[in-house]
Amino acid sequence: MKKILGYVAGVAAMLALGGCASTSAQGSKSSVKTLSTAKQMKLRTNYTKNARQLEFQNGRKNAKLTVLNGKKQCVKKFDVKTTGNFNLKLTKAQAKKLSQCSTFKYSVAQKGYKTYTVSNPVCK
Fold this sequence. Notes:
alpha+beta, five-stranded mixed β-sheet, three-stranded antiparallel β-sheet, 2 helices, 29% helix, elongated
């Protein structure tokens, strides 16, 4: 009798935990929004090789910007302070690291929104 009760209790616990896991996973998916392409952060001007400034438009306050070179190495991380246009200044070492490849990427993360990544060429 004790074995049967132990077995039933174990099955009940597994079903209860499985139900909690599936409902929490569904709840997290619906809370993440996707920005339309028109509202995403973009470069205002093309980046030229060894330039020390990146000019962005459509910045969103409290967004986290990460700039990566073509080798997927982090060049700079930046927290956006204001909404709208802003400039990101690079040191000489950062500009050289960003210019090593023919393309670079930047990714934008913000609470409540899906993170997106944009690829851009390095102009000569």
